[in-house]
């Protein structure tokens, strides 16, 4: 047997074992799949096969919420790509490194790795990956509350999805846009985009992972809750399950939760629990909300989702405010502040100052009140959370918004009044509306 044929046999065995792992993973035998892949990684001398199995391990650990392990495998994959001396492999490995840091809320690192990936032009794979890179970068900018750049990235990702007929990418971008508009409190758009994602799943997602259905339903639930449609929100949270849908309008956060539990999707479990808790808080069922916040916080801490931890802590603080336990509320707010400050999450800081303003107003502590009012307005200015036409704030209450091609966001009513005279923020033409 020649050396070449021995090498080819090794490559075939590696490929067979990777496929075996994929079959196990798709049938929810996750731990067995991981064992198969880890064994391949340990024994295979085929660098291209090792690269592929590392990709499988990165995806699996991402979906399980094991983000530190995801990062560890992404670093190994970078070294493997360098060994292969192939720019396509290197571009893909930098994207996985960016995604790993995004999941761990290391947003500046995410942006840096995304830019590295985008600079690797001229390769077939890097051009195909640009939509995914733009999405990851947009999520990172959103984590930093840099809204214009986040929207620019989401628009680019959506264009790549449309140009390449990539329905999976389009679905993911729609969910991120739903999250974007939830932050800015345009709840109609916050609902529209995940509904669009759900349509894509229904129309094209027969062979897709159930996580896409669960993801769209979760974001719909968040928007419904914000709109005060608590029954619809509870249904959407209940929909993340595994049973077949009986009716289109019977999607429920329970189906989402079932899918999450069946597939060991810890990140989605944490998000569903948080949404359940927020719904119960909105109904003033505080004693039901608290344990759900606790469960969500436990998972968020375990997986390293610090943005999620901020949301939980602010939800708990609001519960304490409802119960008039203002000092306990301030304890939760202080923890949220430390996390938001550490991440550079300006919107989290703004919410902290807003809650503190209300608490100190109730307590009659004027000096603390003034301090938080000043800091609140500083956050608004820094994030440019105001309409450049009317000067009123954006994100303080439910408003219909529209983005111009430059990705600056305005009240729709102001754009209708001012017509197409151009963006007052950057003076660029607004002849046509933006994608989103």
Structure description:
With 436 residues, this protein is mostly helical. Helices cover 74% and strands 1% of the residues. It has a two-stranded antiparallel ribbon with strand order 1-2. The longest helix is centred in the N-terminal third of the chain and has 24 residues, at 3-26. It starts with a helix and ends in an 18-residue tail after the last helix. The model is unreliable at 1-7, 240-252 and 430-435 (pLDDT under 50).
Which descriptors would you attach to this protein?
2 strands, mainly alpha, two-stranded antiparallel sheet, globular, 436 residues
Main beta sheet: strand number and arrangement? 2 strands, antiparallel
Shape assignment? globular
Number of strands: 2
End-to-end distance, in Å? 60 Å
Order of helices and strands: HHHHHHHHHHHHHHHHHHHEEH
* Mean residue pLDDT: 86
Q: Give the strand order, joined by hyphens, for the main sheet.
A: 1-2
What percent of residues are in strands?
Answer: under 5%
- Classify the helix fraction into a percent range: over 70%
Determine the structural class based on helices, strands and strand pairing: mainly alpha
Report the uncertain regions: 1-7, 240-252, 430-435
Radius of gyration: 23 Å
Number of separate helices? 20
Summarize the structure.
By secondary structure, the chain is an all-alpha fold.
Structural topology:
Blueprint (H helix, E strand, L loop, with lengths): L2 H24 L3 H14 L3 H18 L2 H18 L2 H17 L3 H12 L5 H20 L3 H17 L3 H17 L3 H18 L6 H16 L3 H9 L15 H9 L3 H17 L3 H18 L2 H17 L3 H18 L2 H18 L2 H18 L17 E3 L5 E3 H7 L18
Antiparallel strand pairs: 1-2
Helix pairs in contact: 1-2, 1-3, 2-3, 3-4, 3-5, 4-5, 5-6, 5-7, 6-7, 7-8, 7-9, 8-9, 9-10, 9-11, 10-11, 11-12, 11-13, 11-14, 12-13, 12-14, 13-14, 14-15, 14-16, 15-16, 16-17, 16-18, 17-18, 18-19
